Amino acid sequence: MGPADPDPDRLPPEPGPGSGATAPARSFTAGPLLAVSWLTVVPARVRTGPDGSLPVGAAASALRWAPVVGIGLGLAGGGLLLGLTALGVSPVVAGLLVVGFWALATRGMHIDGLADTADGLGSYGPPERALRIMADGGAGPFAVVTLIVVLGVQAGALAQLAAAGPVPVLAGCALAAATGRAGFCWVARRGVAAARPGGLGATVAGSQPAWVAPLWGVVLAVAAAPLLTAPITGGSTHHVTTAFSASVGVALAAVLVVGLAAHTRRRFGGMSGDVLGAACELGCTAVLVVLAAAR
């Protein structure tokens, strides 16, 4: 598995029936802390068992907390975008720097997953060959083109969004980052097997009820809608259609993630950590594009 999985060979196991492992008891804090540890560079310690096993249900809980981590990353990126443009930096340059910041803050896991998924889908042959290509670690032509397009679109959309005012910028970036991570819960929903053993994909495959991702989408769209119509410089407000841009962006992200999950499940025989990263980047990009267009 490629670098889209955080240290896949060292992921703490979740003990299965008959494994003989003794896991720590369930803990409310284990899921959020594990989400921060897995999905960002922020150090967060999760109490493990004597054999290094995670608390019961921690991995599944971490995926459900991922959109909250996304909100934090989005707010940080939005603040950076506002700060750079206030200093006179070109909006396009500021947008590129925010994209770079998000990559650094997440160890590049999600863009690596997007690249590996693009190469896997662009290959021919059985699932085993596609998975070998994805695990190779190199970047083929499909990966390069996909990264240029997706990251370039993100930067351009951020540049266009930068003039919307502080509250819409912060809300828009938070909505985009959180929506992308809500896609994790759909990719790893119950009934979906891991494409291969080991790594993050095998740890969380089939762990999420099917309603979790749609619920997150509704909550995020409803919460962001009033913030996206906040007054901008000069006291005017956005056109009323901007209030619906949150719902449109989330809906477009959902269509892309559902399509990606279905196609990769057929192509690879299941889901992997790389597909999680690809879903995150596509969902985030979809929301940013819609919000930028609503400007």
UniProtKB/TrEMBL annotation:
It catalyses: alpha-ribazole + adenosylcob(III)inamide-GDP = adenosylcob(III)alamin + GMP + H(+); alpha-ribazole 5'-phosphate + adenosylcob(III)inamide-GDP = adenosylcob(III)alamin 5'-phosphate + GMP + H(+). Keywords: Cell membrane, Cobalamin biosynthesis, Magnesium, Membrane, Transferase, Transmembrane, Transmembrane helix. GO terms for biological process: cobalamin biosynthetic process. It is an enzyme of class 2 (transferase). The keyword Cell membrane applies. One of its GO terms (molecular function) is cobalamin 5'-phosphate synthase activity. One of its GO terms (cellular component) is plasma membrane. The keyword DNA-binding does not apply. Signal peptide: none annotated. The chain crosses the membrane at residues 80-104, 139-163, 169-188, 209-228, 240-263, 275-294. Its EC number is 2.7.8.26. Joins adenosylcobinamide-GDP and alpha-ribazole to generate adenosylcobalamin (Ado-cobalamin). Also synthesizes adenosylcobalamin 5'-phosphate from adenosylcobinamide-GDP and alpha-ribazole 5'-phosphate. This is Adenosylcobinamide-GDP ribazoletransferase.
